Amino acid sequence: MKPDTTGDHLTVCGDEQRLSFIAHQLVYLRQNDSNGAAKMSLCVFEGYSWDGASIPRCLWWLFGKPLSPEFRLASLWHDRLCELAECVEDRVIADAVFLRLLRDAGVSKWRRLAMWAGVRVYCFYVWRVKKCLQLFCMVS
After folding, report:
1. Which residues on adjacent β-strands are paired with residue 43?
2. In angstroms, rounded to a whole number, what is the distance separating the alpha carbons of residues 109 and 99?
3. Contacts of 57 (CB under 8 A, 6+ apart)
4. pLDDT tens readout for residues 18-67
């Protein structure tokens, strides 16, 4: 069985800004892998919600809307892995998973690389600010 890379199998409901799970579900990164790569699953509980891909509204015409089916699985994994991230290396992994799932969903190379670059720049900014705040709190 080939994995659903578009997120069409996700049991979600939503409005135009967020998707919410309507049932407890395991979401697989790789359902079948004949190359021996790690199989990862993400446990998502009923009521968990996320806002899809973080695409500025002014760029929707170029990239697509945040809740488009081709972005759902990648944005779900990325958002959840970022929520669980404890260090910058965890964010690097989350961003790599995001890039891979966009590729698996058939997102064009230029769009997925631009979206990946956006999350990398944001990661750099967030972790730099966190580090500065931690240093400031230690000095104070």
Report:
1. 26
2. 10
3. none
4. 666 655 555 655 545 566 555 667 777 777 788 888 888 898 899 988 88
Q: How far apart are CA 19 and CA 88, in angstroms?
A: 27
DSSP class per residue in the chain:
-----SSTT--EEE-SS-EEESS-EEEES-S--TT-PPP-EEEE-TT-EE--S---GGGHHHH--TT-HHHHHHHHHHHHHHHH--SHHHHHHHHHHHHHHHHHTT--HHHHHHHHHHHHHHHHHHHHHHHHHHHHHHH-
Q: Which residue has the tokens 């890039």?
A: 99
pLDDT digits (tens, 9 = 90+) for 85-132: 888 888 888 999 899 989 989 999 999 999 999 989 888 777 677 767
Distances, alpha carbon 63 to alpha carbons 47, 48, 57, 95, 96, in Å: 28, 25, 10, 18, 19
Instruction: Give dist(CA 120, CA 5) in Å, integer.
Output: 22
Please give the pLDDT value at position 66: 84
Amino acid residing at 101 = L
| Of 84 and 29, the one with more pLDDT | 84
